[in-house]
Amino acid sequence: VHHTQLTPATFRCMRCVSDLDTNGGPARPSEIQPSAWHAHPSIRKVVISLWGIVAACAGWAALNGQINFIGHYMPGVGIQRWILACVNTAVVQGPLTIGLHCSELIANVIRDERQWRCATGRKGLRLATNPVKTIFTHPICLVLFVVKPFLHWMFGLSFITTDYAYDGQLEGLAVIMLTAQIWNLCIALFIFACFFTFVALRRPRGPQPAAYGHVQTLANLVDEWSPVMWWGHKDDGIPYCHAGRVFICSWCCCFDTFAKG
């Protein structure tokens, strides 16, 4: 970073985000790019945390054994009881909320890479896009939009906080955990974790280096910025291929270029 601006690194114009070769120099384009799992350490942490939530949910259901439900009763109707009940719910539901929120990181990284790879399409890559339209036209974002409230609803069916009365008088609060609903939640979380594991491990095809939204990598790959851009060899009279994005080989060197249409 120089004067608050990113500058391209030398000899990195055909290096993807996970290419840590410090020697630099000419690079041959790869037919298959690395996955988001290998590109971002944070992606690996999110996927592992999702599977941790699945294991915790399965352990929670297994602890209940063959009992249909387990109830914990808190006598008294004061404000302290309601606060305690809310805290208990937040503690139990917190890992699920954090895990679902962190899964948005995978969706955002995949969405950024999909947008970047539009540079090899006929219409090119447009810098000015509607972020709301981008979210609702991306399948993974739509999956998250639907699944997040659905999983919270399933949690609400398995972990119930209610009041109980005796002889017409309110006696206290009860926390009820339904074993069958916990297993249903575990199955749904297992499917969710499998889906995002597949997404994180999927490798894009094509010689265009993967960036996954990494700003410095994009600065290395792009040599000219314009409202609409295409990825390809720039024919500017230089006798070798340089700075860009398609499979271009000249003699023994392979380079790339980012060309405006």
Task: Give your account of this protein's structure.
The chain is of the alpha+beta class and 261 residues long. 47% of the residues lie in helices and 15% in strands. It is built from 7 helices and 8 strands, in the order ααβαβααββααββββ. It has helices at 36-39, 41-64, 79-116, 131-136, 139-158, 179-201, 215-221, and strands spanning 69-75, 125-126, 159-166, 169-178, 228-231, 248-250, 253-255, 258-259. The strands form 3 sheets. A 3-stranded antiparallel beta sheet has the order 1-4-3. It has a 3-stranded antiparallel beta sheet with strand order 2-5-8, with no helix packed on it. A two-stranded antiparallel ribbon has the order 6-7. β3 (159-166) and β4 form a beta hairpin. α2 (41-64) packs antiparallel against α3. It is elongated, with a radius of gyration of 26 Å.
